[in-house]
Amino acid sequence: MKKLKRSSRLVEMTQYLLFRPHRLIPLTTFAERYSSAKSSISEDLAIIKEVFETEGLGDLQTLAGAAGGVKFIPRIPKHSSLEIVRGICKQLEQRERVLPGGYLYMTDILGQPFIINEIGKMFATHFAGRDIDVVMTVETKGIPLAYATASFLNLPVVIVRRDNKVTEGSAVSINYVSGSSKRIQTMSLARRALKEESKVLIIDDFMRAGGTVHGMMNLLQEFKATVKGVGVFVESGEVNQEEHLVEDYISLAKLTGVDEKTKHITVSPGNFFEEEDLEDN
Amino acid sequence: MKKLKRSSRLVEMTQYLLFRPHRLIPLTTFAERYSSAKSSISEDLAIIKEVFETEGLGDLQTLAGAAGGVKFIPRIPKHSSLEIVRGICKQLEQRERVLPGGYLYMTDILGQPFIINEIGKMFATHFAGRDIDVVMTVETKGIPLAYATASFLNLPVVIVRRDNKVTEGSAVSINYVSGSSKRIQTMSLARRALKEESKVLIIDDFMRAGGTVHGMMNLLQEFKATVKGVGVFVESGEVNQEEHLVEDYISLAKLTGVDEKTKHITVSPGNFFEEEDLEDN
What we know:
homodimer; alpha/beta; Arc Repressor Mutant, subunit A; transcription regulation (chains A, B); WH-like_DNA-bd_sf (chains A, B); WH_DNA-bd_sf (chains A, B); DNA-binding (chains A, B); Purine operon repressor (chains A, B)
């Protein structure tokens, strides 16, 4: 590549890093790419690092030494997350979302890639420090959330199916009771979809008592896998604590009430915003 | 926001534009954001524009006048797409992918967000000029491709379901014959999921004769919607031209043979790479 001026190099390096989160990029990669001295590259990175931090985009971690380099860790500040989630809660409280049976219509919100990416960034921020091999979800509505999260963590995605497709090869199936329907349902995962002893992050769009997530956990035992975390977009607050099948999870929003008659809905930020104080930046 | 130096401003503007494709951003937005003169902003944009074009990231379109501004149009050059697709074809030809029944296992490839994003960029490049309101797919494996495409086009996604979920409200259902199973299947879409007379881009992971895509087209008639394009990741070349139910589509790869006995698989770049010459940059 031809030698670039600092200004062009900064644009180039910014996009290069943004599209390669959680990957160690040796300084020599940049030095060779731009025919520049490593010292110039280091100065560029210092500028990028400062903007990324100020803007709440994430950290640039620099590792010194022969095996060193730079790694972009996407990170959205808690106060920005809270602002976004408050906006989503407001949308979710619109009266016309009440469906027969007291269900809440949220498919349109999950159909907006911009929102999905922000949610993915929140999960990626929270679970960044854990040693995870793969992000898992069950079809259908959790899929975009799982991909967005995995994209920011630079991890692959595994989708648990509700049927057993012939195009997936041999599979492990389990039965579970879904909290919302109280019916016995089946979920299955192809043998070759997940290596044994994988470390797994479970992501889903909605959780009541946790029957589906619990089902995924049982399925994972068949693969000798370890669950490293559970993240759900919306949890139902209408379930008693004793009914909960899953203990350790984070939720971004909490649905505390849907009144089918008055069409009054109450949604508030989830337990993700409870634990710590919001002073983290 | 405090006044930034040009170097920091370039990093900031680069990330701002990359995360907001196909959105018109008035120059005043940047001028106010950085307390800078519009002339400085224009100079910055010229630098960013040049790097984006040289790097094959896309175009920065500048619209003059009071309602003017700048718009980032993600665009991956055809030769880069071809290189990526050739790599994917090579992976798809691995012998161990042959499943009983002559099916091809490709779930692992569709589980990699980095690949999904590149495929989404290809579809977004091809369909960028068309007047589209929404990207549509049918569950399950097309979903990440649809979201990636929609993300680069700044459009919402609508997912057609294979069942009729109570949590979606009233829905329109149709029956169709899937090419691969030759069975009658059902697909449905919630009434409130799609406005009437929408202009729709259909994205899917695999197409044989096109029964599923054709089903989606029939379903769309019920919504008085117009199909503005069809993009599939892999098409089967084992179908006679006369059997094709869908005429106008683009495919990124073409599966021309799976031999269950010898485990020999042949995959080549799809019709996306046939039409035009590759001299486009």
